[in-house]
């Protein structure tokens, strides 16, 4: 990963922006979805490495795409140590306002990246601490006008992409509070070892984390199978303990209980996105998670209600061939799943296949096929569609990984 210092008006370093890098080339990997890169950055900086050493005891600015704001992954991290940087692609709408208000209420500082002023932001800026302005994209002679618009807001203004002494001086005269750019320092590469954790284990942990009530005995045994996961989870516990009354953690189970169901689910979501989504479109990961929840929910109204876990797992595995770049038959040969799951995923046949056919029909808008396969498992098609919409709505409301 890379880090680039942020300086105040007397050139004192006040923090670092952390930037994901997957090689020594010191540039963002364009093939990687933003939520995957953020997940890997968080795992590396907070769980694989010593965060205090990464930022020299300062504050870290970290980019969060809208999906990670929705699923509250940022709340895993200590609010005094990070600034949540909102990407320029985020629209100034009611959803954004609600998300930022909630983060602000919990004590998190917010930065808006590559900010371009419009009146739509006025009602949202009360929750923002820092506004970043790309001075290469914003003519310097227009900046005083922008700063005048922001004067009534209690925000600090950061000039990014400052590349020359003249630009620094001009920004300083204009009233900027913070500065970042190649004039001060290029992003510095920081190396850390990323441990390999099996996809199979991640999926087992995900399954346990998405139950209505987490069984801490079962899930702790899964964490204990991989020392790296145990180490990361203990590091996470340490970042959450901000008071002087720090309980001594004597077991993996105790650590998980200390985190609580909500944070365990968010941590597992982070693992799933960072691990299963490596080098893959984020939509593939989201599709697998959506399918698994949908299958489990509609199963409750079918003759398969006692097999909810099996069809849930089938949904989670349903595009593993695309995620792993392997034939589905090869993937299934290496996994201890029952024949009904294998038949559905490999040969498109068997008792569970109607579930897969239903979701594929919805995704492709093949409504005759949708009606046909709903009848195969004795579920009303309108009811099935309602379940599907509820799953999508839950994702938008941060219930993607909650039951």
TrEMBL record:
Q: One Pfam family from the UniProt entry?
A: HDOD
Q: Which residues form the EAL domain?
A: 1-201
Instruction: Give all residue intervals belonging to the HDOD domain.
Output: 195-383
Q: Which InterPro entries match?
A: dGMP_Pdiesterase_EAL/HD-GYP (IPR014408), EAL_dom (IPR001633), EAL_sf (IPR035919), HDOD (IPR013976), RNase_Y/CdgJ (IPR052340)
Renumbered to this chain, the signal peptide range is: none
Q: Which CDD domains match?
A: EAL
**What name goes with this protein?**
EAL domain-containing protein
The species this protein belongs to is Vibrio metschnikovii
Q: What is the lineage of its organism?
A: Bacteria, Pseudomonadati, Pseudomonadota, Gammaproteobacteria, Vibrionales
């Amino acid at each position: 990963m890379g880090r680039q210092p942020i300086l105040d008006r007397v050139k004192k370093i006040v923090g670092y922006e952390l930037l994901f890098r997957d090689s020594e080339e010191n540039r963002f990997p364009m093939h990687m979805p933003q939520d995957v890169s953020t997940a890997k950055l968080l795992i590396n900086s907070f769980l694989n490495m010593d965060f205090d050493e990464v930022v020299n005891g300062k504050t870290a600015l970290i980019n969060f795409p809208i999906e990670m704001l929705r699923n509250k992954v940022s709340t895993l991290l200590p609010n005094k140590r990070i600034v949540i940087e909102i990407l320029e692609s985020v629209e100034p709408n009611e959803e954004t306002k609600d998300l930022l208000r909630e983060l602000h209420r919990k004590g998190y500082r917010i930065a808006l990246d590559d900010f371009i002023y419009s009146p739509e932001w006025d009602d949202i800026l009360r929750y923002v601490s820092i506004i970043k302005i790309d001075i290469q994209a914003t003519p310097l002679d227009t900046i005083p006008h922008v700063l005048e618009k922001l004067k009534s807001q209690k925000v600090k203004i950061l000039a990014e992409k400052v590349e020359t002494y003249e630009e620094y001086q001009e920004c300083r005269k204009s009233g900027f509070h913070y500065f970042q750019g190649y004039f001060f320092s290029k992003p510095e590469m920081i190396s850390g070892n990323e441990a390999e954790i099996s996809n199979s284990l991640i999926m087992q942990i995900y399954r346990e984390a998405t139950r209505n009530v987490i069984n801490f005995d079962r899930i702790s045994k899964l964490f204990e199978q991989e020392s790296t996961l145990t180490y990361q989870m203990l590091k996470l516990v340490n970042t959450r303990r901000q008071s002087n009354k720090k309980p001594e953690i004597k077991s993996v189970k105790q650590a998980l209980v200390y985190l609580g169901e909500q944070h365990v689910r968010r941590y597992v979501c982070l693992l799933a996105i960072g691990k299963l989504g490596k080098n893959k479109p984020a939509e593939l990961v989201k599709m697998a998670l959506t399918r698994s929840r949908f299958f489990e929910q509609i199963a409750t109204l079918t003759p398969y209600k006692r097999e909810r876990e099996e069809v849930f797992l089938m949904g989670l595995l349903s595009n593993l061939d695309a995620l792993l770049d392997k034939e589905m038959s090869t993937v299934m040969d290496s996994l201890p799943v029952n024949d009904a799951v294998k038949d559905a995923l490999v040969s498109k046949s068997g008792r569970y296949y109607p579930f897969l056919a239903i979701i594929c029909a919805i995704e492709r808008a093949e409504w005759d096929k949708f009606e046909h396969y709903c009848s195969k498992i004795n579920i009303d098609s309108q009811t099935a569609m309602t379940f599907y919409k509820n799953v999508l709505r839950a994702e938008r409301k941060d219930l993607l990984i909650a039951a």
